[in-house]
Amino acid sequence: MNKQKNEGFAIKSFCKERDFIKAPLNSRVIRSSLRDNVDKEQKIGTFSLQQQEYYIIEDLLFVMMGLEGKYIEMNLVRNKSEKDQKLEGIIFSVDGTLDPSLKDLTERVLPLATYYISIDTFIEIHSEFEYGFVSHALCAAMRGLLKEYLVLITQLEHQFRSSTSFTLQKLWFYVHPTLHTMTNIHSLILEIREADMEAMDNNVREILMVDGFPRNDNAPQRIKGGGILSILVDRMTNMSGDPATKKLYMYLLSKSSQPYVTMLHSWIYHGEIRDPHDEFMIQEKKQITKENLKVDYNDEYWEKRYTIRENIIPPFLISFKDKILLAGKYINVVRECGIAIKDPDQQCIEDVVGKDDVDRTEVNVNNDILVAMDGGRFVDNIESAYKFANRTLLDLLLKDQQLIDRLRSIKRYFFLDQSDFFIHFLDLASSELKKPSNQVSLTKLQSLLDLVLRNPSSVAYTDPFKEDVKIGMSSEGLVDQLLHIINLAGMDVNPTNARNSRLMDTFLIRKEIGKMGDESENEGSEDGERPGYAASIAGSVASSLTGSIIGAGSKQYLTGIEALTLDYIVTFPLSLVISRKALTSYQLLFRHLLHLKHVEQLLYNTWTEQAKSFYWRCGSAHPTLEAWKSRVYALRQRMLVFVQQLLYFITSEVLEPQWRNLEDKLSKVSTVDQVLKYHTDFLDTCLKECMLTNAKLLRIYSKTVYICILFCNYIEKFTKNLISLESGSTPFSIDHQERTIYKFEDYFFYHIKLLIDALNFYSATDTVQFLGLVVRLDYNLFYAKHEGSERGDNINKY
Q: Gamma tubulin complex component protein N-terminal domain: from which residue to which, for each copy (predicted)?
């Protein structure tokens, strides 16, 4: 025991030392603290040349396995961690007394020891949990290569022990090919480590969800999963001129990519992401669920639930990234509908997509990569899975869920197509819709709508989806809602200036209406009518008009008919196409049409009241009064023509042609994304060509239409004044009536000319379709030639 202590090979029994149990050769390692107590070994240079060769070969066999020798020592830096030094490569020093020729050969072999220690340390670190499956597979492949390396060491030791002719030169001859392999593996390790250091410098750290619990990940994205595969592919491509090196990297790529391909197949065949280490190219945001589609105005479920990590896509999958994403998304939707997904070997692709083979000539992937990746079978798998998933979901939407029939149903209700039922509904609900919007009973309106839709004489009676139509009340006016959307979309650069402009316009309207009211009040006093009657009418109309133009920041300005809207119940997966965002677009178009229909009805009622009135119908003995009546008739008719032409343009030149175009495209559609794109483009085009996406056009249009409403509300006062003048109960004076009708004409002509000019301008810069509306509104250039009062306003004010 004392002798063992003096020699320093054992302080305690190795059976009690865990290190010795795990690695018995550690008994050769002399602790630095004990080295001073050990008798200094005889310098190797004092031995004969043959003995020097023998001892240095013996030392090399141990050093090549990462163990320190007697005459070859590790040079460790004190201020640097041992693990970092091992990764970067430990430098060995040879006894200086060794023969120079032997020392030269020894130093050629020593890099093997450096590389072995570095690779072994890399495997130890990157086999930890957080580095992911791909890193684990790469470490397993490297471990297999190290095992072959150790077998080589064992064979060399056997030769050394059994053959007297074994020399250092033979050792170098046998290990030289292995040195090339170890050099390339060590170079790969250094590149991965460099990527790790860059990620740490850039503070690239993510929070992972592992088993439902958040944990800090110590492995940056760039050195796991697709990041490692990218490094391997790049090195294999760059070293393609060296067959041995290329073969090595192809082997490492084929082994390390297996877990990644497994994740890929799980995604494209089952729509599931089995990625606990966050290393796959597709990431899932679990907080975005299909239930959010009911209130999601931004289509987040389809666009953001599954996204691509662009920075870690393996190069050989870049050309397939969109198909990979869509294949998984499609099959995931089918799975969430409760439909069982067949196993890959049971999916009859030929029955679904035909028997066309994949054209490899169009695949932009290096042939060497295809060979490394199971001969490129992943290309066939991606193509077939994409086609199967696409056709399955497309059949589910178009056939099982009857998407086109659903869209026809929505068109019938929201675009007022064959809307006899809706006219009946408005007649039944007229008294309720005159109330303020916050006092309207939605239950009563819904029951009236259901009653109308179930009427056998109604066109909607045969609609199988009529139960999904619901009544709703908007909290803001149509114009205000549209301007709010435009401001949020960034179309209106300065929302504050836009609101100030609207307030200024409202002030001008109040000012002009106030003048009308003052004049009518004075005349009312002269005629013996109660004072303030005309002013009260003008004030109430002004409040209604102001509330509509400003957008009714307060709810009390909205009546039931102004706030009325429709809603539609859509279930998953139809909600992918008919999303809340799409339904909002349908609602805006519906409210736009309903508003125009309402104004048209007001003008019709005005014509009806005048036709029933004896004083309006019969000629007058006063030529000036008869001329005034003709001006009222003409203005009412011009307003009616304006509203009718606008309605005809929207329904017959925008909505119907766009719908026919959509139907034609859907009948020929081949992918689900085409369905989504065509439907979105259809709604965007309809909104744009109906002037609902341009803030300036919208403001001009709203003022032009609401002056028509003001005129209809003021016609009762015109009738009272006409009766007074015709009956002779008051002295005959028509000056104030002429001034009033002149103000209406001036305001209407000015704004319709402004609208025509704006349409001409935007038809050249935005939508040529506006030219059709210009022709309809001013086919004979009447408004272009009309000269009203000059105002300081212009288009830019809007």
A: 57-399
Asked if residue 302 and residue 376 are part of one domain, the reply reads yes
Give 203's Cβ-side CA count (13 Å radius).
0
β-bridge partners, 73? 93
**Rounded mean pLDDT of 346-365?**
47
The tens digit of pLDDT for each residue in 472-492 reads 998 888 888 888 888 765 544
708: tokens are 């028509």
Residue 144 located in a structural domain: yes
The partner residues of 94 in beta bridges, in order of sequence, read: 72
Residue 567 and residue 530 in contact, taking contact as beta carbons nearer than 8 Å: no
Residue 89 in any domain: the answer is yes
Of residues 590 and 360, more confidence is placed in: 590
pLDDT level of residue 200 (50, 70, 90 thresholds): low
In single-letter form, the type of residue at position 292 comes to: N
Alpha-carbon Rg for the chain in angstroms: 43
SS3 61: helix
According to DSSP H, which parts of 8-99 are helical? 18-22, 32-35, 49-63, 82-88
Q: What is the mean pLDDT of residues 396-408?
A: 91
C-alpha 126/C-alpha 130 separation (Å) is 8
Q: Per the domain annotation, does 425 fall within a domain? A: no
552 belongs to a structural domain = no
Query: Average pLDDT of 174-185?
Result: 92
In the chain, % of residues over pLDDT 90:
26
The whole model's pTM is what? 0.73
Output the CA angle 615-613-602, nearest 5 degrees: 125
Decide if pLDDT at 586 tops 90. Answer: yes
- The helix or strand, by DSSP H or E, that contains position 8, with its residue range, turns out to be none
pLDDT at residue 745 tops 90: no
Q: Does 203 have pLDDT greater than 80? A: no
Confidence of residue 345 (pLDDT cuts 50, 70, 90): low
Structural domain including 151 reads 44-207
Domain count, the chain: 3
Same domain, 784 and 656: yes
60: CB partners within 8 A, 6+ apart: 69, 72, 106, 109, 110, 113, 168, 171
Same domain assignment for residues 172 and 259: no
- Whether 628 has a pLDDT exceeding 70, the answer reads yes
In which element (H, E) is residue 568 found?
Answer: strand 564-568
The residue written with tokens 């490094």 in the block is 231
> Residue 692: phi, psi to the nearest 5?
-100, 5
- 132-162 vs 49-63: helix axis angle to the nearest 10? 160
Report how far residue 165's alpha carbon sits from residue 170's, in angstroms, rounded to the nearest whole number: 9
Based on the fold, state whether residues 723 and 786 are members of the same structural domain: yes
The whole-number pLDDT of residue 17 equals 47
pLDDT at 73 (0 to 100) = 87
Helix (H) or strand (E) holding 122: helix 100-126
Contact assessment for residue 452 and residue 421, using Cβ atoms and an 8 Å cutoff: yes
Q: Which of 258, 237, 252, 315 is nearest to 132 (CA)?
A: 258
3-state secondary structure of 230: helix
In this structure, the answer to whether residues 766 and 673 fall within a common structural domain is yes
